[in-house]
Amino acid sequence: MARRGTPEINAGSMADIAFLLLIFFLVTTTMDVDTGISRKLPEKQDPNIVPPVLKEKNVFEVNVNRNDEILVEGDTYMKVDELRAAAIKFIDNGGGTAESLQKDKLTPCTWCGGDKDIASSDHPKKAIISLQSDRGTSYAMYISVQNELVGAYTDLRDKYANKKYGKDFKDLSRAEQKIIKTDIYPQIISEAEPTK
Amino acid sequence: MSKFQKKKKEMPAVNTASLPDIVFMLLFFFMVTTVMRETDLKIQKPSLPKADQVKKLEKKSLVSYIYVGKSKDDTPGDKIQLNDKISNVNEVPNFIFIERRKHSEDEIPLLTTSIKADMKANVGTISDIKQELREVNALKINYSTLKGSAFDNIK
């Protein structure tokens, strides 16, 4: 009964209060999503383990010195924008024959579009990119090189995915991505400790 | 003619009763999307390099940040910031352990360390950090970059 007499609360200033809060959140909000190149570090190794012997032709050596210059395979000076094509050529070479790959339980790479050069990598699963930088290399250069090497794998995976499934790699299902990631073009980038 | 003019004069006021609703809607949107910056930068804001092979960092709560850059007074050499203070490289493991304690056991392998380093930083500094991370088995890392062409970095 008494309630009937209670006056209604004036809601006219509600908008003002809401505006105030809105402006506060508008100012403090940051929309940027963190992006970056994801890598996985190798596990700490037992010093007693002897590293496996690799054939030199299966290793793509990239050296970056303290003047931000790139040396590929110990003899070719390269610009960053040539690196991706060179890496693709190396990974996609697939020069191994059935006999030579037998002991690693691999079959010759049928999906490789490379030159099948005997002096280059045998199989994408055996192709290793070795990145050696110097302590004085600039971080910008280091990231550019990393980006190009990861980019080489992305390009190859996309090419394969488009041929087989008619889609880009990133649009494939997780299971399909996993097949490509482990059996077709596994990403093997090894980083040596930087030179002093 | 006079009839029309009369109508114009009596244009009704726009109804603003739904204004609070609209504002509230915007308010909630910004409240949900907002992320408060939890650490103050003690070093100069690192200018991140650009790259195009980037991945988004999905869960922010699983990411710990390491900043690398120049100190504010421009003394030479790279400085590393962990949490709220400039630290030494050998404090990195401790920092990771503290971060890990905030999460449950099964989340620990998912923890990512994001390295936000300045373009002019040296690879040596980064490599020292990576070495320390390997010591404590914090293997998932992310080099924080902006989206763009990687060739812009070296111009």
Your description of this structure?
By secondary structure, chain A is of the alpha/beta class. In chain A, a hairpin with a 5-residue loop joins β2 and β3. In chain A, α2 crosses α4. Chain A is elongated and about 95 Å long. The termini of chain A are far apart. In chain B, β4 and β5 form a beta hairpin. Chain B is α/β, with parallel strands linked by helices. Chain B is built from 4 helices and 8 strands; from the N terminus they run ααβββββαβαββ. At the A-B interface, α1, β1 and α4 of A face α2, β2, β6, α4 and β7 of B.
Q: What attributes characterize this protein structure?
A:
heterodimer; A: 196 residues; 5-stranded mixed β-sheet; 6 strands; 14% strand; B: 155 residues; alpha/beta; 4 helices
For the biggest sheet of chain B, the summary is: 5 strands, mixed
Number of β-strand runs of chain B = 8
Q: Identify the overall geometry of chain A.
A: elongated
Taking the sheet with the most strands of chain A, its summary is: 5 strands, mixed
Low-confidence stretches of chain B: none
Biggest interface, which chains? Answer: A-B, 49 and 56 residues
Residue-averaged pLDDT of chain B = 82
Distance between the termini of chain B: 70 Å
Distance between the termini of chain A: 88 Å
Radius of gyration of chain B: 25 Å
Strand percentage of chain B lies at 15-25%
Q: Output the structural class of chain B.
A: alpha/beta
Helix/strand order of chain A: HEEEEHHEHHE
Short description:
By secondary structure, chain A is of the alpha/beta class. Chain A is built from five helices and six strands.
Blueprint of the fold:
The complex is a heterodimer of chains A (196) and B (155).
Chain A: H1 14-28, E1 35-40, E2 59-64, E3 70-72, E4 76-78, H2 80-91, H3 98-102, E5 128-133, H4 139-164, H5 174-184, E6 189-191
Parallel strand pairs in A: 2-5, 5-6
Antiparallel strand pairs in A: 2-3, 3-4
Chain B: H1 2-9, H2 19-33, E1 50-51, E2 55-56, E3 63-69, E4 79-82, E5 85-87, H3 92-101, E6 112-117, H4 123-135, E7 140-144, E8 146-147
Parallel strand pairs in B: 1-8, 3-6, 6-7
Antiparallel strand pairs in B: 3-4, 4-5
